[in-house]
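Recap from last week: sequence in, structure out.
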Amino acid sequence: MSDRQPPEPSPFTTAIVRGALTRRTALTGLAGLAATGLLAACGSPGRNASASGSASQAPKAAATDLSEADKLVNWSNWPEYIDVDAKGKHPSIDGFTKATGIKVNYNEDYNDNDEFFAKVRPLLDAGQDTGRDTWVSTDWMVARLIRLGYVQKLDYGNIPNLTNLEPSLKDVPFDPGRVYSLPWQIGFVGIAYNPKATGGRKVTSVDQLLHDPALKGKVTMLTEMRDTVGLVLIEQGKNLANVTADDFTAALAVVQAAKDAGQLKGFTGNEYTKPLASGDTAACVAWTGDVVQLRADNPQLGYTLGEKGIPMFSDNFVIPNFAKHKLNAEKLINYYYDPKVMAEVTDYVNYISPVAGAKDELVKKDPQVASNELIFPSQEVLAKTQTFRALTAEEETSFNRQFQAVVTG
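Predicted structure tokens:
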């Protein structure tokens, strides 16, 4: 759809492994989910070896593709993770239907990685259609889906706009060669603070966040293990690409000590945003897209990206086994890899676009957003990005159990 040539490769890291996401509204019933074993994906431990990915792989048979006869695609995504107009409609989806004649059943029923996984796994294990042709999973969950054999290889012949993929995102450890997944949105992890609640001081380091007496009892961290512990690991001089079990335990001990000292108010998903805006929370670990949204109403809010390194994550399209409209799903992915279309999405969700050329398109429509360094970061910032290495099933279970003991203990 576009003959735009990608720019020179940016120094995006090639390892994108994140826990859970983003500006989306997180589940509020954390305690209830814990009781049922479906703790928010942001930090939920594998419930058993099978849940974290050591089970035998699912049947590989693909369903008969009904795409040509049935002009339909079923897409599950996170809440508030696509463009919306004043009437509550999604202009980009309407544009896809107009361009292709394919209707989109769009569902915002992906509230949490593990919760969603628990819904679709029994169907995939039984060799049944999940009722979804594509969905958007966080990178670490993509690794699990691939490990279990639950997702299909993408047919690049149906995605010619793949040439617009940011070059350094074409090969990632959780999906070498991008065989099974393509990124939807990308974001950073940093420290947000409200100057009214900090006495006007800036919060520029994890050390300050966890030890400054002026912030005691007014600090929150994320229930996402990789983001919270990742920030501490980087502060300790570790590289997230080669974290060891001992590194992880040592970093987690620092978080535990801060909690024991009363420095921490608690651990949150996206619900940190309102307390931060009001000043009830002075400083917190936060995601870029949320901060961009909050700054629209309160430009005084501060946000710090680490000098030693910046955790980065991605959310990704996948196509599950037994999907009935695989071709239509690939046409949908292709549509969103048109820079003009992705610019529409970026203008609303305020996360980092994986599509080269989206910024050029957005400059024409919304130059203020196009100039926002948290949405289109500089090469200098990108050079500092790090991502948590891919974990084995056993490591994922162990790390999450340790982390949950701190979060809920």
